[in-house]
Write a structure and sequence with these properties.
Number of domains: 2
Distance between the termini: 29 Å
CATH class of the largest domain: Alpha Beta
Bound molecules: ligand BES, manganese (II) ion
CATH architecture of the largest domain: 3-Layer(aba) Sandwich
Radius of gyration: 23 Å
Largest sheet: 6 strands, mixed
Shape: globular
Helix content: 25-40%
Mean pLDDT: 97
Strand order of the largest sheet: 1-2-6-3-7-19
Structural class: alpha/beta
CATH superfamily of the largest domain: Zn peptidases
């Protein structure tokens, strides 16, 4: 029987081919047009788990897209690792900015990925990272080295807010009893600088609609005499930050936990090169909330951003029109101890109060999610630290992730379990952007590291 390393080496190409097949399915959860593809993706994930050696593989219905369940219980007295991931992806738009088609995976090298990276929507977020767990499981099964029990929960609505997962968790608490949640859906600092996220931000996402006159008007005949909702909306949005980059919504910072000076020093020890950051984004300079570093602005501070803004004429050429309506999608990233419902209410009241009498304002909340911090003194964290130290030759640095995975807070409140965010992507892998990619090195390193997490977790649990 081969060792884990030998098995991985001998099956490298097949592991890649299988991921390619998964990436070819456009499982865009946000767009009903892709419904069949999303469902087909769930089938493919279930199939792959069955082939890898899992038992009780089930495609479990929810109010939305199904959750793939699978397990391998080798001994009820041993610990159980619960693997969470998502098989849905973000829309590929804007399609014309992709250099290769988003659902035809292609390998190309980049400056950061000289050994090659897989270009495809979902390659990093999260199909590539989720599939590492399926392959790591296969490696352990085929080398007879699975040291504990495992349960999989692979969902299909993460990118649209996991609205049905809360109820699903409540209804299936028993099924998901276990000892730790293991997730690869975050980033490391760099391929030579491993890190583990020990916090995620929450989210409050709103859509606003500003209405002026009852119909679009000739901007020469009426312009200057009637409120233009696009002008008004722009001014309202501009007022949501002051000159220091603070959010002006009353009470917005009330519940924010400020880190101690010592904690901030620790956080800022993570290697970070502002010049590289600016160059990667092709910006002359960064900006943000006064008094905080870039690491802090994206990790421990709440933010407010417009994700989309529209209204009036946006087609070819020029049309002189004073629009009847203008819209924006506005999201706020939250940090401990902010609460998404509370912030939603603060925003709604504030935004309505901002509107001049000449327009009507409607605010509609979309999805939300709560922020989390994950302790670094747990057995789960230590196991991840040991596993990464083994494969990277360096102790991973604890960091704070700027993104959100709303289910992590629910794992804590419903299952009372900490999640270990052992991600392998890079922030520069263009998640949610055109030309998303995932390094081949990262993919294989993940498959190599995950079994070591199982090993260390099981050992630490024993002692
Ligand atoms: N995998 C990301 C979250 C992430 C990325 C966390 C990088 C930390 C580092 C996840 O798929 C995601 O995109 N989540 C959404 C939230 C959701 C409610 C749409 C997000 O953060 O915008
Ligand atoms: Mn993700
Ligand atoms: Mn995502």
């Amino acid at each position: 029987m081969s060792t884990q390393k030998e098995y991985l080496e001998a099956n490298k190409q097949r592991f890649l081919d299988e991921l390619f097949a998964l990436l070819r399915l456009p499982s865009v959860s946000a767009d009903v047009k892709y419904k069949d593809d999303v469902l087909r993706t769930a089938d493919m994930v279930a199939d792959s788990l069955r082939k890898a050696g899992a038992d009780n593989v089930e495609i479990m219905p929810t109010g939305g897209y199904p959750i793939v369940y699978a397990d391998k219980i080798i001994d009820a007295t041993l610990p159980t690792v619960i693997v969470y991931g998502h098989y849905d992806v973000q829309p590929a738009d804007p399609i014309n900015l992709w250099h290769t088609p988003p659902f035809e995976p292609t390998i190309k090298t980049t400056e950061i990925h000289p050994e090659g990276a897989i270009f495809a929507r979902g390659s990093c977020d999260d199909k590539g990272q989720m599939y590492m767990h399926v392959k790591a499981f296969e490696v352990m099964m085929q080398t007879n080295t699975l040291p504990c029990n495992v349960k999989f929960m692979i969902e299909g609505e993460e990118e649209v807010g996991s609205a049905n997962l809360g109820k699903f968790l409540q209804d299936n608490k028993e099924r998901y009893n276990g000892d730790v949640i293991l997730i690869s859906d975050t980033s490391i600092i760099a391929n030579d600088t491993p890190s583990i996220d020990c916090g995620l931000r929450g989210l409050a996402y709103m859509e606003v609609e500003v209405t002026g006159p009852n119909r679009d008007l000739h901007s020469g005949v009426y312009g200057g005499a009637v409120a233009n909702p696009a002008n008004v909306l722009s001014k309202m949005i501009a007022s949501l930050h002051d000159d220091n980059g603070h959010v002006t919504i009353k009470g917005f910072y009330d519940d924010v936990i400020e880190l101690t000076t010592q904690e901030r020093i620790e956080l800022n020890k993570a290697p970070f090169d502002i010049t590289v950051y600016e160059k990667d984004l092709d910006i002359a300079t960064i900006q943000g909330e006064k008094g905080y570093t870039t690491i802090e602005r994206t990790g421990i501070r709440p933010t407010l951003d417009v994700n989309g803004i529209w209204g009036g004429y946006t087609g070819e050429g020029a049309k002189t029109v004073l629009p009847s309506k203008a819209y924006a999608k506005i999201s706020m990233r939250l940090v401990p101890n902010q609460n998404s419902d509370k912030v939603t209410k603060l925003f709604t009241d504030h935004f309505k109060a901002l509107a001049p009498a000449s327009v009507k304002v409607k605010v509609t909340p979309h999805h939300g999610g709560e922020p989390v911090v994950i302790p670094t003194n747990s057995i789960g964290y230590k196991a991840a630290e040991l596993a990464m130290t083994e494969t990277y030759g360096k102790k991973p640095i604890p960091t704070r992730g700027g993104g959100s995975i709303p289910i992590v807070a629910l794992f804590k409140s419903v299952l009372k379990l900490d999640s270990i965010l052992m991600g392998f992507g890079l922030d520069s892998d263009a998640l949610h952007s055109p030309n998303e990619h995932y390094g081949l090195v990262n993919y294989y390193k993940g498959i190599e590291t995950i079994p070591l997490f199982y090993k260390h977790f099981t050992n630490l649990k024993k002692n």
